[in-house]
Each structure stands twice: as structure tokens, then as C-alpha cells.
Amino acid sequence: MRRFNYKxxxxxxLLFAGTACNEIIETEPVVYLSEEGALEDYAGVSAxxxxxxxVIRNSNYYGRGMIINPEVMADNCRPTDDNSNRHxxxxxxxxxxxxxxxxxxxxxIARINLVLSAVDAVTDASGSNAETxxxxxxFLRALVYHDLAxxxxxxxxxxxxxxxxxxxxxxxxxxxxxxPNTYPIRATNTEVYAQIHEDLDNAIDLFGAxxxxxxxxxxKTAAIALxxxxxxxxxxxxxxxxFALQAITEGPALVSGEGYMSIYTGxxxxxxxYRITSGESLSxxxxxxxxxxxxxxxxxxxxIVPTTKLENLYDMDDAxxxxxxxxxxxxxxxxxxxxxxxxxxxxxxYRGAFGADNVPLIRASEMYLTYAEACAEPTNVDGSAxxxxxxxNARDYLNQIYNRAFGEDYDNxxxxxxxxLMTEILKQRxxxxxxxxxxxFDLKRRGLNIAKDYEGLPAVQYDDHRVVARIPDSEIDVNPxxxxxxxx
Length: 488
Prior knowledge:
By secondary structure, the protein is mainly alpha-helical. Helices cover 41% and strands 9% of the residues.
């Protein structure tokens, strides 16, 4: 049995001896140092923050599971007929087959808490450097806590049978063995979301124009964009529209239709991108391995492919081989043991080594679609009026996504209103963000049933307990204060 990783970090400090330069995060093997030695200077706190970023590269987290599982758990992806037996449980929404980020998420939070507790006492850093480290730490903690919230809890206003417990909030390091953080309780979803916003507000205030690694680390724009996403999940459409528009104004432009693949081959549209370098590749456990193979069948499992339902959204020609949609450039038709399939090439080891990719976690298109969705809702989830409700604005920003895809405006744009407008926004969101880890969460946050397009499986009802992940039994076994999610 094991306790949260942050208890271990109170006893022996895990310091990633690495280098954080302007564009890249490189990490070396773990070195064990005393807490005092590890955090006494700017290099120490910086390296510890690098370690916090490195932890979320785990194959259960952004290394694979947090990207692929939400696609196969919803209606975007399915396993090929011939497969390596990976993600089968998720594709059938079997109990216990979900997303499992608890351990790496809290390991990252533990390192972040140590950074935030020590950085103000560091004497060899300039004020601006220390503030940027703090800002980056707050941003990353907000990102990780929101991931935990959407995996292990229901969104505020979308609870089932009134159950509103989310995840434990631990925002300080362990100091003694009898620290109350040893057995933390689950905070409510509103408490967790309040902490996320507090962290993002701190990040926005502290960042200024600085970043520790461009789009590969937190920034003021990334914190603003993440705040828009968090408000969208809460159903606070008024605030989601406000922050999404700010992120659009301050962030990168949409790439052209012709340059669509630059989003994945480089950093087109990037607001925040998780970089996996050649030395950090997860090889056969990588996103690239599960999503594709080389033309000769080598280089990966190629197990996870689009469903027929998703393919049909791309308006292919009568021969089902091409589409006028620029986003169709991500696909390549291939046979796998006589099964014709469309491999998506959003993640194809573009950084030169197998499994090495830029993984876009927040990008401009998401903000355009967030703004459109938020403007199309007349009321917030709590029933209050949305002061930013404006269907003209929703249609305008939706049309910009469509125009980039097809090179022309909707020919019936004005006809989209009410339910038809929201249906089209969610359709374009499904197409635009396919394979990037959004689909399951988009259905969940809107309180929608999860349709399936795999072996005739029935839809997963929104109130089904399997929609929310099981808290690891190993955590519940050692922490009597952890209440399991209903149904588990």
C-alpha cells in the first residue's frame, strides 16, 4: 500500500537535476537530496518545478492516457479489429477502465507545493525570476487540479443525486508525520474549482510578459485560456466568454487551412503545448504508437482509429477518400491486416524520434469554439442570466473555424440559432479537437449521454457511475477519510 507521493517528498526531497531553458524541458534521473539542500537556491526550485512538469508525462497522463482514453471512452475512436488489447476496457466503458491520473497528478502537486513554499526565501534569484517561477507553479497546479476534478468528480451544477465530492485539496508540503495532509478529505467540487481560479488569478498577476519556456511552459495567456476552459466546465458561460475572448485577443491566430498540420508538426496555434523530447519518449506506450503505424505496418501498434460516426463528420466525397475540409489532412488511409482504416496523424513522432511529439493542450481553435459556445448560452448552469449571450458573436466565431476549414463561410449561417446553433458548435468542436482528449469531457460537462459507435454498444447514460473514475483502492485502503465515488 502507498500514501500520496507528497508525504514521501516531505521526508526525502525528490529533485530532478535538470535544465529548463527558453524552449525545452530536459530531465535527468532522480537525485535524492535533503529538502534544505534542494530548495536553498534558484537552481533547486527551478529544477523541482521541472520535475513537476516531468511527472505528468506518465503514460497514464499526458504521455498517453489523458489524450487517448477520452476519445475511446466516448464516440470518436474505437480499437482496430486486430489490436494489442490496449484500451479495450475504455472503449466498452467497463467498470474500472477509465483514466488513472491520481498518482502522477499528486506527485506533480507535491513538487509544486514545495516550490511555492520555498521560492520566496531564495536569495540568488531576481524578483522577476522568482515571480515567474511562482506564476508557472500556480498555473501548473491549476491545470493538474482541473484534470483531477474532471476525471474524479462531477462539475458544479451537474451532480448526480447531490453527490458533490471531488478530490483532496493539498496546497502545502508535509512538515511532520502527523501533518493533517497525511489523510486529507475530499473537497467539494465548488471548493476545488475555487482553488483552481485562485491559482490562475495568482499566475495571471505574476507572469507579466515572461515565461520559463515559451509555449512549452505556463504563461499569462495560457493561464487566461485555462481560466476560460475552467469556467466553461463550470457552466459559467458569462465568464468563459470573457476570458476566451481575452485569450483570443492576446494569443496566436488561427493557422490557415493550408497550414493546418503545422499545429502538430510544429507549434501552430499553440497557447500551451506539452513537449515530449526524444529522450522522454514512451516508445510503444506513446500516443504515436497507439494512434498509428508506418505504411509498412511497423513503428507502432496502430490500435486506435476513428469511428465511422467521426469519419462521416468530415463530409468526404462519394468515394470516401477525400474531403474539402482542411482538417481532413490529419488522416491517412491504410490497411491493417486487411481492415481499411483511417489513421490520424496528429501525433506521428514529428520531433524526430519515435514517440516524440508536441502535444497541444491549449490552442487557439479551442478558444474560438469556447467563445462561440459561451455566447450561445442564454443562461449559466446556475440559472443566472449570461450577460455575454449573443448569438451573432457565437455565429461569427463559429464561422471563422468553418471558413478556415473550407475556405468559405457557411451558406446558411443566419439559420443557426438556439438548439441548431449549439448543435453545430459542438459538431465543429468534435471535429476540430478530435484525438486530443476532449470528447468524453465535453459530453460529461454538458450533462449529455455518451453515445457509442463500437460493436453496437448502448449509450452510457450521464448518471451512470462509470462516467466518473474510481479512486484507486490503494489510496482508499490507507486513507480512511477518502469516500469512494458512488457505485464503486
